[in-house]
Amino acid sequence: MQELKLFQDNLPLPKARAGMVRSGRASNSEIDAFERGVRPMLRIVLPEKAEAVLRFCAAPKLQARIEELAIKSTEGQLTEMEPAEYAGYVRSNKFIATLRRQARQLTGATS
Fold this sequence. Notes:
The chain is an all-alpha fold. The chain has one domain. Helices cover about 60% and strands about 0% of the residues. The chain contains four helices and no strands. The longest helix has 26 residues. The two termini are about 25 Å apart.
């Protein structure tokens, strides 16, 4: 099984199904705008929690579920209810990746 790098910007989006609207990967300008929008709030929240944000890992059970959905999505095998669940994980993944980037900037961490 291919190991996914969770909490990075590369988690694959769910495959489109009949009747499902799917947007593509966020453009760089969309990502930049999102980060500019949340940066002021993150500067308030992150200074005391930056190290914890950098150490954060999903619980093994949750990570296994996300990996299962990613594989099923890639293979076009998601059930009727799973695209919405997976899309939520993709969205949260992008937010966590943004938090991590900002925490790295605050701490000067390189990875």
